[in-house]
Specification:
7-stranded antiparallel β-sheet; 3 domains; 2 helices; 25 strands; Immunoglobulin-like; mainly beta; 24 nucleotide stem-loop, u2 snrnp hairpin iv. U2 a', Chain A; 7-stranded parallel β-sheet
Length: about 325
């Protein structure tokens, strides 16, 4: 088992031959650093990371060789970030996550590869009827333990009943395109049931979300519907987007999270900020970059090209740094 105390220097990691454990890291708010991880050969354990706010960095993870267990983690309310996970060759255990309300994001794995399902001790979890879970429970020979969650997901019988109900909205896709100043969001639904509409939400960090618009739903329909929304004032740097689908009766469900990077040609951009083991810097022209610590001591300097530059920070300790660069006669200092 490979135990990770921090994720610095792992941004090129695509596979782990054995197990991977991220356990009891009190200050870890995200899994940034694992954005390239595609497969884990053994168990994947994400346990007791109380500050963890999102799993979105696991967006390209496809397979786990043995068991997946997520326990006692942070303040996220769904499992968005696991949308591309198609193989769990062992048990799936979700337990003791206080703020989890939905298993949205965990609906695309092959249920035939799973050999045990445990969902328990999540007091706010009410939405468990995602497709892969429903398919697994449809076989009466499959083992499952489901208890001590909220109504709708408090027992195997409750989840099986919910699985028989039509989904409020069957979302086909959710995509984003950009030009120099705008982000164009498009999504399609295959069918809708009791759909009041969609809140369009945006975030700069995948954790704190703002509502930037609303698209009225079609109510109940079995026809394919297309929706579009233009973000006319996107953030500089990375923009995360998600949809909050609202029922007429007050129920709701979140979509997957997608992201777009928008870089203004007339400005220097730095992201992500805060950063872990690297930072991306966009500069409209060639420039000199200097990085100093809080004491004003120069710790790194280099020339950067026009366009996008990746700057490694894995050799620097945690803390606050200041990036100084100049464009023409202007000088800019950015706190990192």
């Amino acid at each position: 088992m490979n135990l990770l105390e921090n994720l610095q220097g792992l941004d090129n990691l695509t596979s782990v031959s054995g197990g991977l454990g991220i356990i009891s890291n009190e200050n870890m708010t995200s899994l940034v650093g694992l954005e390239s991880l595609i497969s884990v050969g053994g168990d994947l354990l994400i346990l007791n990371n109380n500050a963890l706010a999102t799993l979105s960095a696991l967006g390209v993870l496809e397979s786990i060789g043995e068991n997946l267990r997520i326990k006692g983690d942070g303040d996220f309310n769904n499992l968005n970030g696991l949308d591309n996970l198609t193989e769990i060759n062992g048990a799936l255990q979700i337990d003791d996550i206080a703020n989890l309300t939905s298993l949205s994001g965990l609906g695309n794995f092959d249920h035939l590869l799973l050999d045990m399902l445990i969902i328990q001790d999540c007091p706010n979890l009410s939405f468990c009827n995602v497709p892969s879970i429903c398919d697994y429970l449809a076989d009466s020979n499959n083992e499952a333990i489901i208890n001590d969650n909220f109504t709708g997901c408090n027992s195997q019988e409750e989840v099986e009943t919910e699985c028989l109900e039509p989904l409020p909205v069957e979302l086909i896709d959710f995509t984003a395109k950009k030009d120099e100043k705008h982000v164009f969001l498009t999504w399609h639904t295959a069918s809708e049931n009791n759909n009041a509409g969609f809140e369009i939400q945006r975030s700069k960090d995948g954790r704190d979300w703002d509502v930037i618009g609303f698209a009225e739903g079609k109510g109940t329909t079995s026809s394919i519907a297309e929706y579009q929304f233009i973000d006319t004032n996107p953030l500089n740097g990375i923009n995360y987007y998600r949809l909050k689908q609202l029922d007429f009766d007050g129920g709701f469900e979140y979509s997957i999270v997608i992201s777009v990077i928008l870089l203004r040609d007339d400005n220097i951009q730095v992201y992500p900020n805060p950063a872990n083991n690297y930072v991306m810097i966009y500069s409209p022209v060639k420039s000199k970059l200097e990085i100093s610590n809080q004491l004003g001591i120069l710790v790194k300097q280099m020339n950067i090209s026009s366009g996008l530059n990746k700057i490694e920070l894995s050799d620097l300790g945690s803390g606050i740094y200041f990036l100084k660069t100049g464009v023409g006669n202007a000088e800019r200092i950015i706190k990192l």
